Amino acid sequence: MTDEEKHTEEKKQPKERTRKRPRRSYGTGSVFERKGRKGKPWVAQIILENGETSTTYYKTRKEAEDALNELLIEQRHGTLATGPKQTVEQYLEYWLEIHRETLKLSSYMVYRRHLDNHILPELGHYQLQNLKADQVQAFYAKKQKEGISAKTLRLFHAILGAAFKDAVRWRRLVYNVCDAVKLPRLICTFTI
């Protein structure tokens, strides 16, 4: 058989097809290493309810496996936040617009003023899912030092608490960070 005949024989034979693996189902995850990635080569990946994947990176395989187990537990208990990645500012703007029709105009204007003047400049840049209670507590302390009254701080807390309560209900947050924040005391003064 000549080289040309061998070449034509190879072309005639069908190539072996590799079987495509079925997609992993919801509630499963995997840990694997990305060889070319520097710093954090280990990947923990989980499939969310909406079919998308959540991917996080770690330095060691053990860290990735531990994180995957935590994610799977949270997912099974229904405490895994699966909302879109957004900042506190994006969420609060969205939240206020949704509730605009149910609020009195005067209430809407007060919420809008406090969001624009105080809350969004201080907390708006944080990722919603990464916001911690101590950051909100520090915001209250800073505003108190600036001379904002305890009554106004309680209004800030009511706005944030209601917004984050909805975020928990809509599964954008795991828990309401305002539940862990201590409010300043109201000081009553009596004049006789």
Would you write up a description of this structure?
With 192 residues, the chain is mainly alpha-helical. It has two domains: 8-77, no CATH class; 88-180, Tyrosine recombinase, N-terminal domain (DNA polymerase, domain 1), CATH 1.10.150. Helices cover 47% and strands 9% of the residues. It is built from six helices and three strands. The chain has helices at residues 3-12, 61-77, 88-99, 105-123, 133-145, 150-169, and strands spanning 29-33, 42-47, 53-58. A three-stranded antiparallel sheet has the order 1-2-3, covered by helices on one side. A hairpin with a 5-residue loop joins strand 2 and strand 3 (53-58). Helix 3 runs antiparallel to helix 4 (105-123). The longest helix is centred in the C-terminal third of the chain and has 20 residues, at 150-169. The N and C termini lie far apart (118 Å). The mean pLDDT is 81.
Rg = 26 Å
What is CATH's topology name of the largest domain? DNA polymerase, domain 1
Specify the biggest β-sheet.
3 strands, antiparallel
Cα(first) to Cα(last) distance is 118 Å
Helix content: 40-55%
Which consecutive residue ranges, at least 5 long each, have pLDDT under 50? none
Outline type: elongated
Task: Average the pLDDT over all residues and give the rounded result.
Answer: 81
CATH superfamily of the largest domain: Tyrosine recombinase, N-terminal domain
Number of helices: 6
